[in-house]
Amino acid sequence: MASQHAKPAARHSPGRSSGPGRLIVAVYAVFAISATARAGFQIATGFSHAPVAYSLSAFAAVVYILAAVSLAKAGAAWFWTSVAAVSVELVGVLAVGSYSILSSAALPEATVWSSFGQGYGYVPLVLPLIGLWWLYRNRADRKQ
After folding, report:
1. What is the Rg, in whole angstroms, of the alpha carbon atoms belonging to the chain?
2. Backbone dihedral angles phi then psi of residue 14, each to the nearest 5 degrees
3. Contact residues for 130 (Cβ-Cβ < 8 A; gap 6+)
4. Across residues 116-121, what is the average pLDDT?
5. More confident residue, 8 or 139
C-alpha cells in the first residue's frame, strides 16, 4: 500500500556542472592550475623584477580556483560565489588588458590577463562571457 503522505518526486535539475557546464568547469580548472603554476614560478624566480605583474598573476590564479570550485558546487551560495568570481574575472581581464596595452611599461612582464589574455589565445577574455551566460541560463529562479 502506498502512503497517502508520500512526497512528490523531486524534479531533477541537472545543475550548473553537467553537460556543457562540465566543460566550463574543466576549462576553469585548467586555468586555475596554469595560472597558479605561472604565478608561483614568477614569484619564486623574480618577484622583485615585476611585483605588480606577478601579483596580478597570483590574483588571477585565486579567481580561477574560486570560479572552478564554485561552478562545480550546487546551491545558491555557490551560485552567487560563481557569479562574483566570474564577474571579477571579466573586470580583471578588461582592466588589466586595457592597462597593459595603454601603459606597457607599467607591466614589464605579462600576466594571465595581459593584452586581454593574448598569451592564452584570448580564452581569458571569452571565458567569463561564456561563464556568465551559463550562470544566467542555469540560475535558480529560472522558470522551467
Report:
1. 19
2. -60, -25
3. 24
4. 92
5. 139
Distance CA 59, CA 66 (A): 11
Alpha-carbon distance 115 to 98, whole Å? 7
Q: Tell the residue number behind the cell numbers 590574483, with chain if given.
A: 59
Residue 60 CB partners (closer than 8 Å, separation 6+): 35, 39, 89, 92, 111, 112, 113, 124
pLDDT at 110: 86
- The C-alpha cell that represents 41 in the structure block: 614560478
The SS3 call for residue 122 is: coil
| Secondary-structure breakdown of the chain: helix, strand, coil percentages, each rounded to the nearest 5 | 70, 0, 30
Which residues, other chains included, contact 29 with Cβ-Cβ below 8 Å and sequence gap of 6+? 68
Buried/exposed 14-43: b ≥16 CB within 10 Å, e otherwise: eebbeeebeebbebbbebbeebbebbeebe
